[in-house]
């Protein structure tokens, strides 16, 4: 007897398809912003990286297509329902995705690589790490937008430690959501959690820089 699922995303094939689609969106965002940065300042040494990114995107498309085909062959109704729900979810995240991508694109078009390197470059030191960490702490954007933005900044001479601090505090520290967090967990617990997360983000950034430098 076939198992009946209350929700379409509980179906293994539908769930696998939705996860593959999310990976495709991440790959496309990363590739688009990286291409924008590379076109602004061409670098012949980055040609193999661009070929690798194109190959990654092709593989993600192929995996997503195979998962969609397998899900469609198993159950057309659930696959159609999953596609409609995925489309509605994409409509929900599209506005904030476009806004952040446009802001990053405008910032990269206005600021040259020397400015980015001066503020959050690898030679900016502790000051650049703290600036990047503070920006990440007070910024409220989803991870699937933060990662391609971070990739674009890295291509524009931003430092690895600085970007790691930015992404870490962005994911773990929430200054904007702190009042709401206080209502549910209490003022003391919320402050302790965010403070510990901020310190851990700095440690993680230093560790990432050390690993990349090996």
Q: What tags apply to this protein structure?
A:
globular, disordered N terminus, 214 residues, 9 helices, mainly alpha
Describe this structure in words.
With 214 residues, the protein is mainly α. The chain folds into two domains: 8-95; 111-214, no CATH class. The protein is built from nine helices and no strands. The protein has helices at 12-40, 47-74, 76-110, 113-120, 125-138, 143-155, 160-172, 178-185, 187-212. Helix 1 (12-40) packs parallel to helix 3 (76-110) and helix 2 (47-74) packs antiparallel against helix 3. It is globular. Residues 1-11 have low confidence and may be disordered.
Q: How many individual β-strands?
A: 0
Q: Unreliable runs, pLDDT <50, ≥5 residues?
A: 1-11
Derived from helix and strand composition plus strand pairing, the structural class reads: mainly alpha
Helix content: over 70%
In whole angstroms, the N-to-C terminal distance is 54 Å
Overall 3D geometry?
globular
How much of the sequence lies in strands comes to: under 5%
- Radius of gyration in whole Å, from Cα? 20 Å
State the order of secondary-structure elements, H for helix, E for strand. HHHHHHHHH
């Amino acid at each position: 007897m076939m198992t009946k699922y209350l929700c379409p995303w509980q179906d293994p094939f539908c769930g696998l398809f939705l996860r593959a689609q999310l990976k495709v969106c991440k790959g496309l965002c990363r590739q688009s912003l990286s291409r924008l940065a590379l076109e602004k300042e061409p670098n012949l040494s980055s040609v193999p990286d661009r070929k690798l990114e194109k190959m990654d995107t092709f593989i993600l498309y192929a995996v997503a297509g195979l998962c969609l085909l397998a899900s469609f062959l198993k159950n057309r109704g659930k696959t159609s329902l999953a596609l409609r729900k995925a489309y509605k979810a994409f409509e929900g995240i599209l506005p904030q995705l476009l806004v952040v991508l446009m802001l990053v694109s405008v910032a990269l078009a206005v600021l040259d690589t020397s400015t980015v390197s001066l503020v959050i470059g690898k030679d900016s030191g502790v000051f650049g790490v703290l600036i990047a960490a503070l920006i990440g702490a007070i910024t409220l954007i989803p991870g699937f937008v933060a990662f391609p933005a971070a990739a674009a900044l890295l291509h524009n001479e931003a430092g690895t430690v600085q970007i790691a601090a930015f992404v870490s505090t962005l994911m773990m520290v929430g200054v904007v959501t702190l009042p709401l967090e206080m209502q549910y967990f209490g003022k003391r617990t919320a402050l302790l959690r965010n403070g510990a997360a901020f310190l851990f983000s700095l440690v993680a950034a230093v560790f990432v820089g050390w690993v990349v430098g090996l």
